Amino acid sequence: MSRGISGLILAGGAGRRLGGRDKGLVMLGERPLVAHVIARFAPQVETLAISANRNLADYAAFGHPVVSDALDDAGPLAGIAVGLERAALPLLAIAPCDCPFLPLDLVARLHTALLAEHAELACAAVGGRLQPVCALVERALASSLRAYLAAGDRKVERWYAQHRLAIVDYPADCTDFENTNTPAELAAVAERAA
Questions:
Q1: pTM value?
Q2: Which of 164, 170, 43 is nearest to 107 (CA)?
Q3: Overall domain count for the chain
């Protein structure tokens, strides 16, 4: 567990490519996707919350605080903004609800890179390709993010580019960041989990 780091699982998406299903609650084996993420992510942070905009009672049943954002179609940044504003600790680690094989060393590696590079945020990448919702962000960036969203911007990478960013690059063949945006991806993840 990394001291001084809050964790936030992003589960507020509309799940459009999954027919509108709430991705975090889609079953993978005998547990919802978010339960797999909690099992891997919670031990890496000091506190954990879930960002969700529907099925709030279902998410609360996992035993962690649930926070909601009030911005329509703002994407993951809306959830990150609420997480930063409510985080009790100086750093906020974020992860998506549909990444059941999340690396067990993710937060530690992000934290090491952030400190080593005197960065304001750190983001995972696979073979040089950013995984924008697997990141570690200084709580002090909350006001910057609110201003960015108020200006109508929604692109995660564009906001990251405004700050000192450290990148933790995993090998190109790393499959720990596989997620489930489509039925085909869900089937592939289910096959691997089995």
A1: 0.91
A2: 43
A3: 1
